[in-house]
Every structure is written in structure tokens, then in C-alpha cells.
Amino acid sequence: xxxxxxxxxxxxxxxxxxxxxxxxxxxxxxxxxxxxxxxxxxxxxxxxxxxxxxxxxxxxxxxxxxxxxxxxxxxxxxxxxxxxxxxxxxxxxxxxxxxxxx
Length: 102
Prior knowledge:
With about 100 residues, the chain is an alpha+beta fold. The protein has helices at about 20-30, 55-70, 90-100; strands spanning about 35-40, 45-50, 75-80, 80-90. A 4-stranded antiparallel beta sheet has the order 1-2-4-3. The longest helix is centred in the middle third of the chain and has 18 residues, at about 55-70. The relative contact order is 0.20.
């Protein structure tokens, strides 16, 4: 793996692309702080902490703007003083479920 995450850009998946192997996902995970791998290395998640609800809301709004610009939309849960961001590639997951059923 020669690329770093900073050298990559988010490109919406059109399906038919195999998911990362766990070892490769773990190598990328080593480049970021406080993210965790879940669901057999198919999803990443991080919880951010803030001083109050307004700060958490501002963060979520910024995440939403970035997600729209990148065309890759995370699951976001937030409340007073926190925001949890979870990302997975749904088209890869759907493609795997379809091919497993065939």
C-alpha cells in the first residue's frame, strides 16, 4: 500500500469493487486517530466530544456539507456534547450480499 489516506479522494462506489481486506483496512486505520473498525472491517466509526450542543451541531453541519461535496454520506448521531460518525460503503456491501445469494 503506497498511498496514504491524505493522497486519496472519496469516489462514490458504483458497485462491483471488492471491499478492503481486514489487514489493508487496519493499515489505513493506523493513519488516523480514534477511529475503530466494526462489522468485520466493513465500517469505521469515531465519536467526537464537544463542550455543548451548539458545538456538536456545528460539527454535524460541517460534516453534512463535506459529505454532500464528496458524494459519500456517513451515518451521524449527535446530542449534547458529542457526535458519532460512522462510514461504510453500502454499494460494496450490497454487492457482496447479492453475489453471496447467487
